[in-house]
Amino acid sequence: MTADPISRNRRTLKERLFGNPMVIKELRGRMRGARAFIVLTIYLGLMSIFLTLIYALYAQSMAFSGSGQGGEIGRVLFYSIVGVELFLVTFIAPAFAAGTISGERERQTYDLLRTTLLPARALVGGKLFATLSYILLLLLAAIPLQSIAFLFGGVSEIELILSFVVLLSTAVLLASVGVFFSALTRRTLSASVLSYAFALLTVLILPIGLMILGPVIGSLTSTYGATAGSVEAAMYYIIGLFLATNPLGTLYGTLQLLADRQVAGVFDVTLQNGAVIKLVSPWIVFVIFTLIVTVVLLAIAVRRVDRIEES
Higher pLDDT residue, 289 or 21? Predict the structure, then answer.
């Protein structure tokens, strides 16, 4: 009996993800030995120590001031652990991805790998999926630490879910950048420098630029907003775009909207002239931005691998 097309498509997708020999090779090599477990232990240990310090400092400050609520402690702990996760993912993802293809050239195993007749898209996709699988393990392992905030209250399940989505999207973006530069350059050092430069630009420099641009935009809005609604609306869209093209701004904007308005999707903003415009939560734009950049970078990386093989 012939299987229906839906079943065939499902099997094909499963085979592409888990039947790729490059994925199996990378995962076995990564999980063989003590390195992967040492990284996981250090990762969770650093976050546990940081979480304990934050709780101790906040509890001490409440003891001196004589004020504070359990919900505030929960939110502080949650925001702190998510921030540490973002910081660690920013450094771990490029480190794992930057040597995926260039490392094969340096070990002189690239030509042997290409004699297996593995398509370039399977090679690039397998390297990326294997890298993301380990990063996903790190993110899942940290969920119990995030859940400690629920003991104090002030944090909802949707905040936990959306923070995980933003962290995973950040890992996909930075890992794709690492694989792209690994395919573009011949040395892992060069790929690592370029990958970390992109991560630094995305995670730190853009938020700093937004902080500098914010007061300027605010003054322009106060000057022209009441008389020109289109100017004020453009300011909101510009700020939203800057906010949603970096993970730090996306996390801050998304969690702030959830805390203030309990909004995770589309919301209304009233301008000074009384007009109402619609905006979307930053995490939605960031996920779309990540998918577009990932597809473009992987397509270029595949063409680069094909060009290397032909030459």
Answer: 289
